[in-house]
Design the sequence.
């Protein structure tokens, strides 16, 4: 892609030179469009900091995250992070899918932050808000520098993604894993290609992600799977769950977590519009199931938990960690990642983090 040859977005009413900045985004350098990404604008920014501290009191088993992108061209209708885009004066619907903020200096800034004497090398999680391997990563190539900076500083890292572009960095990840604990996770909650194309249209399809899991395992790397969200009446049948867990077992996943659709404000409105348009017969059922909250009813979650336990056992995941849907605050249930995603620390590599803990996929951490 001849990215630099593409036109910058024009300032409203200005027929002269392209405008380097259109929005009040801190550090905005330019806004770029290109035919290869029709309908998407990339806002390139220089960040002052990229290490984000997880709020005190969080249930997550790590303290720090890095998100090189804001917004995501994967366009998953159900994405929990949609509301985070409103903090940038974008909307949580179409803007989240089409207005992507890129921290072009992420690796450079991260190296400086990791070199500070105060940095004690706790685990850093990537992919907690928007996907670090969305399509734009093929051009910007931010992740190799980020992975290298973390590994060379002795900092354990974890990555969660739907992006098969991760395969590009398998050699680098193998090298990093020889230096620090590395956890890897793929988000995959359905094997129905048609449903996937409709509800997560910008992602690689299920078959492609299954092949990625196998490639990671063949490379000797761990790979847990976040089977989220399970969609009521769309992907929660016996046939759908049997196909999902069977496929994950065949691909070699090291563990699986599964949980029901979570509809926090910002996501709820966008998802309900999609349901009304694509499955109008389910719109009323979803409203009744979720009421005025973000979570499916306790009865549904208990019902789904029983099915998940059965199919996990059937396909050899009975002794791996993952959502149990215990009779607890559902936020505790969402605080579990499967084995393979959270790196198992080794002596001299920072605080211990058990593989049964979660990275908080439902949190918007920037």
Sequence:
């Amino acid at each position: 892609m001849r990215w630099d040859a593409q036109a910058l977005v024009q300032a409203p009413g200005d027929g002269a030179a392209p405008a380097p900045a259109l929005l009040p985004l801190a550090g905005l350098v330019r806004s770029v469009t290109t035919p290869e990404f029709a309908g998407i604008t990339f806002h390139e920014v220089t960040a002052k900091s990229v290490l984000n501290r997880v709020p005190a009191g969080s249930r997550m088993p790590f303290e720090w995250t890095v998100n090189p992108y804001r917004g995501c061209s994967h366009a998953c209708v159900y994405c929990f992070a949609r509301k985070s885009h409103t903090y940038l004066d974008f909307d949580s619907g179409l803007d989240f899918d089409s207005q992507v903020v890129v921290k072009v200096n992420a690796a450079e800034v991260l190296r400086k932050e990791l070199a500070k004497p105060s940095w004690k090398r706790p685990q850093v999680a990537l992919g907690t808000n928007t996907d670090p391997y969305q399509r734009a990563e093929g051009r910007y190539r931010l992740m190799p520098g980020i992975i290298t900076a973390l590994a060379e500083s002795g900092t354990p890292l974890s990555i969660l993604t739907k992006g098969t572009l991760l395969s590009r960095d398998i050699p680098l990840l193998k090298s990093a894993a020889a230096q620090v604990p590395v956890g890897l996770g793929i988000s995959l909650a359905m094997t129905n290609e048609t449903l996937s194309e409709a509800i997560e249209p910008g992602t690689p399809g299920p078959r492609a992600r299954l092949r990625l899991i196998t490639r990671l395992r063949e490379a000797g790397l761990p790979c847990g799977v976040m089977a989220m969200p399970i969609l009521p009446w769309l992907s929660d049948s016996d046939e759908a769950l049997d196909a999902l867990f069977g496929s994950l077992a065949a691909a070699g996943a090291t563990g699986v977590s599964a949980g029901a659709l979570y509809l926090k404000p910002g996501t709820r409105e966008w998802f309900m519009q999609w349901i009304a348009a694509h499955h109008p017969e389910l719109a009323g059922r979803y409203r009744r199931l979720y009421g005025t909250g973000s979570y499916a009813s306790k009865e549904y979650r208990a019902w789904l938990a029983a099915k998940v336990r059965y199919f996990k056992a059937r396909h050899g995941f009975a002794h791996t960690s993952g959502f149990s849907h215990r009779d607890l605050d559902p936020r505790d249930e969402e605080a579990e990642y499967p084995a393979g995603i959270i790196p198992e620390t080794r002596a001299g590599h920072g605080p211990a983090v058990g593989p049964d803990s979660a990275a908080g996929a439902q949190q918007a951490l920037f």
